[in-house]
Amino acid sequence: MAITIDNKFIEQLVYETFDSLEGNQFSSLGSPELPMWERPLIGIAMGTDPYYDFLKSHIGEFHWNPEEVFRLKYAKEISKENLRVIAMVFPQTMETKKAQMKEKICPSREWIISRAEWEPLMVEFGSRLTEKLEKHGIRSVSLDLQKELKVQKSEALGLASNWSHRHIAHLAGLGTFGLSDGLITEKGKAVRISSLVIEAPLTPTERPYKSHNEWCLYYKNGSCGLCVKRCPTDAITVQGHDKEACEKYETEFFEKHWPSDIAKGDYKIGCGLCQAGVPCQNKKP
Ligand code: B12
Ligand code: SF4
Ligand code: SF4
Question: Which ligand sits nearest to residue 213's alpha carbon?
Fold first, then answer.
């Protein structure tokens, strides 16, 4: 029987792939029975949306559009009309968030590990998903598998990637930005994000907002501001988020406050205290 390639089919494939991940567990903390991440929220955007041009002027010319992403992997017969972008938002588990909420200086052990083991997990996820799609004759590019994905300097906005997962998730209807910069989704801000460019006739997700920051209480009505208080280094103020100060603090906690019983190895680091213990932790507040 011929398979219909539609949103439902893709959603099932994403969940099936996610559910099969061997790396989605805390064996590094001696708890292989506990998952690191919950099933993702999924949003879909057209490959022709004018938003990609906006990102080129807003972030920098270096920010890719879906067609440029597709050309990283495929040489022939690429038409942007046939491309879609799938944004996937993976929530932290309640256990990780509860542990992170209690911390004030150094992120919790669960937060440290779920951040540190993210890249290998996304290699496992992206490889399996793109292979399954290929078996169905569908071309796709998982951004987290592309070695060209890197951080550079946007003249206007400082540290920025050539593919900002959260701007793409915003485009795909999954959330709006908060005072801390973090994307607030229906499952809150304590999330990580991945994206996939795919050649398939999928229907774009409706965007249930009009502005880029309306789900944040501070931007909505001047209230909250709790992320400002959660930051141990004053990197967040009512003027927004100071990326350099934030990055500097991540290095500081790595050097001064890292738990002695967790081997540093080549782990990537992230603080994320502003993502927990706030009203936008688990939901759109
Ligand atoms: C560089 C980077 C950093 C830098 C800079 C962060 C930043 N704000 O850009 C540093 C090292 C500081 C950092 C820290 C963290 N990061 Co980081 N980081 C990235 C990376 C690699 C690129 C981000 C990027 O391209 N930014 C682009 C710039 C332009 O974004 P921006 O300035 O924030 O954008 C603002 C404007 O565009 C404005 N805006 C949006 N639309 C519009 C429209 C108009 C008209 C106007 C005027 C303005 C406007 O709002 C945005 C937010 O304020 C991404 C991975 C990726 N490839 O996407 C992860 C990523 C953003 N980080 C993430 C996380 C989780 C973290 C940490 C929590 C660390 C951790 N893991 O524990 C902290 C949180 C810091 C914070 N307060 O948000 C997540 C995001 C989760 C979320 N809920 O948003 C990402 C997507 C990684 C992932 N794969 O999930 N990170
Ligand atoms: S903690 Fe409050 S002010 Fe900060 S991003 Fe969340 S809703 Fe906005
Ligand atoms: S990640 Fe940590 S240092 Fe950076 S803004 Fe959030 S709380 Fe502050």
Answer: 1
pLDDT at site 1: 63
**Per-residue buried b or exposed e for 43-64, using 16+ beta carbons within 10 Å of the residue's own CB:** bbbbbbbebbeebeebbbeebb
Stretches in the chain below the pLDDT threshold 70: 1
How high is the pLDDT of residue 172? 98
Nearest one of 224, 227, 118, 211 to 170, comparing CA atoms: 211
Indicate the domain borders of the chain: 7-275
Q: Between the CA atoms of 52, 78, 175 and 184, what dihedral angle is there, to the nearest 10 degrees? A: -90
Residue 260's pLDDT is what?
85
List, in sequence order, every residue forming a beta bridge with 196; answer none if it has no partner. 86, 142
For residue 284, the ligand closest to its alpha carbon is: 2
> How many angstroms separate the alpha carbon of residue 181 from the centre of ligand 1?
6
